[in-house]
Amino acid sequence: MQGFKTAAAACGMRYRGRPDLALIMVDSEAGGTAAGVFTTNRFTAAPVELCKNHLESPSIRAILINAGIANACTGEEGYRRALEMARAAGEAMKAPAGSVLVASTGVIGMQVDPEPVRREMRGLVESARPDRWDEVARAIMTTDTVPKMSSATVEIGGRRVTVGGVAKGSGMIAPNMATLLAFVCTDAAVERRVLDHWLRSGAERSFNCITVDGDTSTNDSLIALASGAAGNPVLADVAGPESVLFGQALEAVLVDLAKKVVIDGEGATKFIEIEIVGAPDERSAKTVALTVANSPLVKTAFFGEDANWGRIVCAAGRAGVDLNPDRVALYFDGLCVFREGTPVPGAEVEERAASAFRRKDIKVRLDLGMGTASFVAYTCDFSYDYVKINASYRS
Amino acid sequence: MQGFKTAAAACGMRYRGRPDLALIMVDSEAGGTAAGVFTTNRFTAAPVELCKNHLESPSIRAILINAGIANACTGEEGYRRALEMARAAGEAMKAPAGSVLVASTGVIGMQVDPEPVRREMRGLVESARPDRWDEVARAIMTTDTVPKMSSATVEIGGRRVTVGGVAKGSGMIAPNMATLLAFVCTDAAVERRVLDHWLRSGAERSFNCITVDGDTSTNDSLIALASGAAGNPVLADVAGPESVLFGQALEAVLVDLAKKVVIDGEGATKFIEIEIVGAPDERSAKTVALTVANSPLVKTAFFGEDANWGRIVCAAGRAGVDLNPDRVALYFDGLCVFREGTPVPGAEVEERAASAFRRKDIKVRLDLGMGTASFVAYTCDFSYDYVKINASYRS
């Protein structure tokens, strides 16, 4: 991907002996265009507030990310420190602090210390190189067990354009470790408004479709940054065919990253796709999908490899959507196990359902029989390890 | 409690070697007044449908309850079989089938077999005795580890009136075992409309305040039955002082039973009270309370005895209520741990909070600083055993 340099370092703010600070720079003084989608939690971390303000700037030069301390619930002092981090990066890059975005993940309620960030900053800028995305993906991890990267390429106006991103999970929030952070970069030349449009619609079909435990962190941030270095004619018309191509590439990367976050969900042993079809509208489809995907009884059944159609239809039934039980049909990997208000009888059905649940990837389809809208949610199971990770995190 | 007889038997419909069938009879041909509150799940079990229909009758003679099979998701055949159970009880008691209520708990999707019920029915009626509520409480258990009973007495019009009840939990639903069933009987003479009023308002402050895992079963039923045998002047005016006294006694029994259900929640090791105060209205208070009470991250923190204020404020922040983080204050057993957007500093605070979390009963108070409305939710923690019970239930 052209027009970017990245670097990572171990600043030691909280972790010891591992990279915990990452920098993504646009490799041109003109900077790039950027867009962001942030947590809807009323408790918003200081770096999220800072990003919202700095995104007002027409040009963004860099994203600075630290792992270990989330700088959330830290009051005005937290904002001041987030700003100091942006200033340190700006000084080292000879760029305005207002052109630097900051993201943090880690313990809630602790102040970040800008001093080690400042100390590492010059070295970070000097060591920045193209195509070191894996270092960034590693430096932003908290309870994640694997780094998460994805990319796609597409031809636009005769130029090869790349969209690439990194993300971290892996519970939605924790104590308070784990937040959803994703940074998607592209060398496409694209107007901010167009980038913003595709980021928002892509988020709806990716990060807004996943759930590990239903919690939304104080720090959740999805940021897109475009360098324009691919040299394609600037994408200025959202509805234009090349803009749509770009949007599809961006969405593909977002969906892939989102799935990787779920697969690496805390304690997860299964990857589950909950597809709701036949809904009266997309909102209802989404409500049912997420109610099923977040039900602890459903999630423990997946962990136990128990093809428990009862828990799934019951979770759907309490989702607040005016279902008609007689019209609902449930499928496991294409096999109908429930319809017309009762389970499909037969030992063979039970046997095949059980076998579907023994696989690592499970597809559940629930047809509400009411309309034509649909929604797919991605989730994971609830295991002993989920409880273990989250019961003993801080000790 | 006057005017009732009860009995229990092992009919062997699904369990072996334990009582699984219970009968609560009003000991008079005139029967009693009754009221019910039922699941809001769109998948409603056949006995719930039957109860709704039979409650149209002005006089109720009995409640017949079976454990082991829930008769949910069983289509029209399920209703026919529930009705056969009511008929069997009616015949044995020489009462109309329409004066018998039926409740079932257990596996979803399986048909009940009315045959063993019919076989036991005459013996059940003949063996019925006053004051055998403990047998009823035991016969209706599924994953419950202890029988749940409660009672209260109050003087009305110079007569001693008793309200007594039994309940079972212990997940909200399961595979499908465990449903919330509660039967509250009283010897008060009370008009149906008055009984209905106090049952509904009492349910709001008891069973609608508890959550084990956020799931609402297909079978959840709360039924009140009044024999009138205490001989008090009939309670006919909801707003009258004696009606209010009666309502308070009923509510006390409901709250006590509801708390017992939570304490015996699947895998629970802690009993947690989540009190929201300073809310703009009761609906917002309830939304925040239940969002916190259902958060897996909050519940695993309780299990881990981790005084994790971060997870609690974050769950509150995502509840969809327009909070101002700077006005929120959080207390553990009366100790303020968070206010003005940041944690209260100090090793002493942390030490005392940690000690509060080591107790079996934990009180959490969250002041939203917005108004005067409040709500209290009761919940339990999420343990390894919750996962174990629910991952391996059917095997």
UniProtKB/TrEMBL annotation, chains A, B:
<feature type="active site" description="Nucleophile">
    <location>
        <position position="179"/>
    </location>
</feature>
<comment type="pathway">
    <text>Amino-acid biosynthesis; L-arginine biosynthesis; N(2)-acetyl-L-ornithine from L-glutamate: step 1/4.</text>
</comment>
<feature type="site" description="Involved in the stabilization of negative charge on the oxyanion by the formation of the oxyanion hole">
    <location>
        <position position="106"/>
    </location>
</feature>
<feature type="binding site">
    <location>
        <position position="266"/>
    </location>
    <ligand>
        <name>substrate</name>
    </ligand>
</feature>
<dbReference type="GO" id="GO:0006526">
    <property type="term" value="P:L-arginine biosynthetic process"/>
</dbReference>
<feature type="site" description="Involved in the stabilization of negative charge on the oxyanion by the formation of the oxyanion hole">
    <location>
        <position position="105"/>
    </location>
</feature>
<dbReference type="InterPro" id="IPR016117">
    <property type="entry name" value="ArgJ-like_dom_sf"/>
</dbReference>
<dbReference type="GO" id="GO:0004358">
    <property type="term" value="F:L-glutamate N-acetyltransferase activity, acting on acetyl-L-ornithine as donor"/>
</dbReference>
<comment type="subunit">
    <text>Heterotetramer of two alpha and two beta chains.</text>
</comment>
<comment type="similarity">
    <text>Belongs to the ArgJ family.</text>
</comment>
<feature type="binding site">
    <location>
        <position position="395"/>
    </location>
    <ligand>
        <name>substrate</name>
    </ligand>
</feature>
<protein>
    <recommendedName>
        <fullName>Arginine biosynthesis bifunctional protein ArgJ</fullName>
        <ecNumber>2.3.1.35</ecNumber>
        <ecNumber>2.3.1.1</ecNumber>
    </recommendedName>
</protein>
<dbReference type="Pfam" id="PF01960">
    <property type="entry name" value="ArgJ"/>
</dbReference>
<keyword id="KW-0012">Acyltransferase</keyword>
<keyword id="KW-0068">Autocatalytic cleavage</keyword>
<feature type="binding site">
    <location>
        <position position="390"/>
    </location>
    <ligand>
        <name>substrate</name>
    </ligand>
</feature>
<keyword id="KW-0808">Transferase</keyword>
<comment type="pathway">
    <text>Amino-acid biosynthesis; L-arginine biosynthesis; L-ornithine and N-acetyl-L-glutamate from L-glutamate and N(2)-acetyl-L-ornithine (cyclic): step 1/1.</text>
</comment>
<dbReference type="GO" id="GO:0006592">
    <property type="term" value="P:ornithine biosynthetic process"/>
</dbReference>
<dbReference type="InterPro" id="IPR042195">
    <property type="entry name" value="ArgJ_beta_C"/>
</dbReference>
<dbReference type="GO" id="GO:0005737">
    <property type="term" value="C:cytoplasm"/>
</dbReference>
<keyword id="KW-0963">Cytoplasm</keyword>
<dbReference type="GO" id="GO:0004042">
    <property type="term" value="F:L-glutamate N-acetyltransferase activity"/>
</dbReference>
<feature type="binding site">
    <location>
        <position position="168"/>
    </location>
    <ligand>
        <name>substrate</name>
    </ligand>
</feature>
<dbReference type="InterPro" id="IPR002813">
    <property type="entry name" value="Arg_biosynth_ArgJ"/>
</dbReference>
<keyword id="KW-0055">Arginine biosynthesis</keyword>
<keyword id="KW-0028">Amino-acid biosynthesis</keyword>
<comment type="function">
    <text>Catalyzes two activities which are involved in the cyclic version of arginine biosynthesis: the synthesis of N-acetylglutamate from glutamate and acetyl-CoA as the acetyl donor, and of ornithine by transacetylation between N(2)-acetylornithine and glutamate.</text>
</comment>
<feature type="site" description="Cleavage; by autolysis">
    <location>
        <begin position="178"/>
        <end position="179"/>
    </location>
</feature>
<keyword id="KW-0511">Multifunctional enzyme</keyword>
<feature type="binding site">
    <location>
        <position position="179"/>
    </location>
    <ligand>
        <name>substrate</name>
    </ligand>
</feature>
<feature type="binding site">
    <location>
        <position position="142"/>
    </location>
    <ligand>
        <name>substrate</name>
    </ligand>
</feature>
